[in-house]
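Can't paste images in this forum, so I'm doing it all in text. The chain is below; anyone willing to post the predicted structure tokens underneath?
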Amino acid sequence: MRSKGEMLDLILDTAREDDYIRAALLNGSRANPKAPCDPFQDFDVVFLVTDVTPFRHNLAWIKRFGELMILQMPEEMGDPAPVSDGRFTYLMQFMDGNRIDLSIVPLPLADQLIQDSLTEILLDKDGRFTSLPPADDRDYHPQPPTAKAFSDCCNEFWWVCPYVAKGLWREEILYAKYFLEHQVREQLMKMLAWYAGLKTGYAQSQGKSGKYLQDQLESELWQALLDTYSDADYKNTWEALFIACSLFRTTATRVAAHFVFDYPHEDDQQVSAHLKHVRNLPKDAVEIY
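Text version of the structure:
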């Protein structure tokens, strides 16, 4: 596997040798001084160019970066739809384990890119970015909730939980798991992010998909979160749902107390009672109540 130094030399040499390329930027975890270093970190690179055309779908040109395991070109795909803002991107996973996500971006879009606080200037041929501050993760710190955002999160969480219960009673596990793992979990993770922010003063990134939350939650809450991830067994999925409800309630009431928000205790109590009722509802029932 090529080293970090070898990869950066390759990236910089490519940028220096091409007159179309006027600047090279590094984004993502490689630009974050607080991010743990490991061999799986991508090189998120931007080449700012005077003309994107020579680089577009140029499979011969990207051979310089190494032997490919697999390549993706988002602008050539229909699903998901491309951004279509003039850039062209190569997502390159190499046989030696390295990965480069390389965006070829027209110079007029430069101002948009440097607004990301995780931007390190690797090369600046024209002195465009001399005043850019050192890269840090300040743009990725969680933000405290507004009263409206908190209320909406609580409402959506308790609204969606009965969907999971309905799917479990019907023994439609894919339906139940979809609502548990997507809608319910989305609101749970949002609340956990707000709660963890109380402990860190909203001054620490929680990482993509909350990957740093383990260090920001009490051990019992972290374990409870892990316990919400169940297999496809119906009993275990019911348990995961009730653990998610308990974890949401615990953290949401603490967030509400801190910000003096109203927590919807009545919604919680009524929906929780409904979930327990549905769990015990006979399979031959013709009425819910």
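Residues 141-279 form a domain with the Four Helix Bundle (Hemerythrin (Met), subunit A) fold (CATH 1.20.120.330). The CA atoms of residues 141 and 205 lie 4 Å apart.
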